[in-house]
Amino acid sequence: DAGITQSPRYKITETGRQVTLMCHQTWSHSYMFWYRQDLGHGLRLIYYSAAADITDKGEVPDGYVVSRSKTENFPLTLESATRSQTSVYFCASSLAGSLAKNIQYFGAGTRLSVL
Amino acid sequence: DQQVKQNSPSLSVQEGRISILNCDYTNSMFDYFLWYKKYPAEGPTFLISISSIKDKNEDGRFTVFLNKSAKHLSLHIVPSQPGDSAVYFCAASAKTGANSKLTFGKGITLSVRP
């Protein structure tokens, strides 16, 4: 049971480059999320998706693009990377609904450095 | 304006003693609260949760207390073990099941000394 996997685990890129972080889950969870973790800020929501082809902005969406053509995949794209986007990125998924109690399950993270 | 606050960035306790991690919130619409634990180089993992209709939930060594009037919750770990050393995030959601969004605090780093 793979659960939720993120790739790559580590990525170094240059300012202005496009980079895509991948997230794949095997639970058929309807909801998926992208967070970034920065010192002094905790976990901040970038984008989330309630189902395939349904996405919405979170707290810090600027500079990011998401898509969800299939339920199991939720890639995050930095169209033109900036140094301020150096961070650790976490993908999460949730079954949602009252019985699931909004518990989110996280991937191991991608550490991104923008030089 | 931060809606979930973990004002103490770190806590150090002796093995075998109680660890008490605090969390405050400002949004009265929050009705479900969760604690996550995070080790270095790993993703956060769900630890324990509590609904606003309860004031206490217990799971083994972990107990979460909710004081709605004070908009305050706390996580008690008894007895604390060195393996509990990690970052603990408090999180909250409004309208359980509506959109599954969580608002996280900044986290508390717990160190349990052998």
Radius of gyration of chain A (CA) equals 13 Å
Please, what is the CATH homologous superfamily of chain A?
Immunoglobulins
How much of the sequence of chain A is in beta strands?
Answer: over 45%
Overall body shape of chain B: globular
Q: Which residues of chain B form runs of ≥5 with pLDDT under 50?
A: none
CATH architecture heading of chain A: Sandwich
Provide the succession of SSEs of chain A. Answer: EEEEEEEEEEE
CATH-level-4 superfamily name of chain B: Immunoglobulins
The ordered H/E elements of chain B are EEEEEEEEEEE
- CATH architectural label of chain B: Sandwich
Could you name the CATH class of chain B? Mainly Beta
CA-atom Rg of chain B in angstroms: 14 Å
Question: Biggest chain pair contact, residues each?
Answer: A-B, 28 and 25 residues
Tally of helical runs of chain A: 0
**CATH-defined fold name of chain B:** Immunoglobulin-like
At the third CATH level, what is the topology name of chain A? Immunoglobulin-like
Give the helix proportion of chain A (percent range).
under 10%
